[in-house]
Design goal:
- The structure is a single chain.
- The chain has helices spanning 22-40, 53-77, 86-90.
- The protein is an all-alpha fold.
- It folds into two domains: 1-50, no CATH class; 53-90.
- The longest helix is centred in the C-terminal third of the chain and has 25 residues, at 53-77.
- The protein is rod-shaped.
Amino acid sequence: MVNFTRPALSPCLARFKSADDPNRREAISIIEAGAKALSERPREDMPGARLYGVEADRQRKYERLAEIERQAREAALRGEKRYVDDADVAGE
């Protein structure tokens, strides 16, 4: 319904009869603002996306835990033990 690359061609604008309709122009400006916001902060499924806030924290924790697990598996293969403490999990 919304075309961020060419806002004036968005299907949601078909309800406006005239290209000069002030509501249509306002709708286009809203779509353009949305396109600008998306380019500055893409969704997670878009190229160039980055995680922010809680999601970024969760991803860092996941990566730490995955590394701890990898190290534990390698130690087990060598017949060693790898102990994990709270500092490892917290990333300290």
